[in-house]
Amino acid sequence: MIYFFFDHFLWLARAGVLDPALAPRFSFISAFGESVGYVFFVLLDLIAIRKALIEQRRLLSGKAEVELDTEEKMSSRIGADRVMRLMAIAANLADLIIALADIAPNPFCNHAVTLGISGLVSAWAGWYRNWPA
């Protein structure tokens, strides 16, 4: 929410509605909030992947009391969900690198190759999540 809130002020400052001198401060706060969000999104996806792996192992070991047909469908669904979550992690990590370039400019994050690859990874992962087939 910090990101969305201050991003509006950032664009108002860049458009000249607010004092343009405030834009760097709004940019920093917005990028910082965005970065915190990306870190937590990655952690949530990793936790969900771990839980799904535990469930899939339980299904495959035969300890689950489900029919064979249902077991295969559930295992397939868990595998598809894992791929989608891995795509989300890739997109969030790429977006995190881009946000870090706004927070504290440094030679790695602000390099044209790093930003280019991060943008491509984010776009590719977003495309795959929207159109997986």
From TrEMBL:
Pfam families, sorted: PEX11
Cellular component annotations (GO), alphabetically ordered: peroxisomal membrane
Alphabetic keyword roster: Membrane, Peroxisome, Peroxisome biogenesis, Transmembrane, Transmembrane helix
Domain of life, per lineage: Eukaryota
The keyword Disulfide bond belongs to this UniProt entry's keyword annotation: no
UniProt GO MF annotations: identical protein binding
Main location: membrane
Record localization: Peroxisome membrane
GO biological process, one term: peroxisome fission
Mode of membrane association: Multi-pass membrane protein
Transmembrane segments: 26-49
Family the entry assigns: Belongs to the peroxin-11 family.
Function: Involved in peroxisomal proliferation.
Name used for this protein in its record: Uncharacterized protein
Lineage summary: Eukaryota, Viridiplantae, Streptophyta, Embryophyta, Tracheophyta
